[in-house]
Amino acid sequence: MLDTSVNPHIAGAHALTRRERVVLAELTEDVTLEEIATRLFVTRNTVKSQVRSVYRKIGVSTRAEAVAWAEAHGIR
Fold first, then answer.
1. Is 37 a member of any domain?
2. In this protein, which residues make up the domain named HTH luxR-type (predicted)?
């Protein structure tokens, strides 16, 4: 039987939506969530939700870990 579950360490950036990749790239810059929200024309709460989703999918729990993951996977 084919395993359809997503393992973020294997699937990498492909597990992320286009918007999640954009948010992750924004996290690599020294900006606040409010500034990211303004740049993306969404609310801060939307960005917070997207960040939580990114963290879950890539298996990290801090911004520093997410930035390191993004750099290791060529997302900037």
1. yes
2. 9-74
Domain that holds residue 24: 15-72
- CA 52 to CA 69: how far, in whole Å? 15
Q: Residue 19 is part of a domain; what is its CATH number?
A: 1.10.10.10
Question: 68 to each of 14, 25, 30, 62, how far by Cα in Å?
Answer: 17, 11, 14, 10
Place of tokens 């409010």: 34
Nearest to 28 by CA among 52, 56, 64: 64
Tell whether 20 is covered by a domain: yes
Q: What is the mean pLDDT of residues 40-57?
A: 98
pTM: 0.81
- Number of domain units in the chain: 1
Q: How many CB atoms lie within 10 A of CB 38?
A: 14
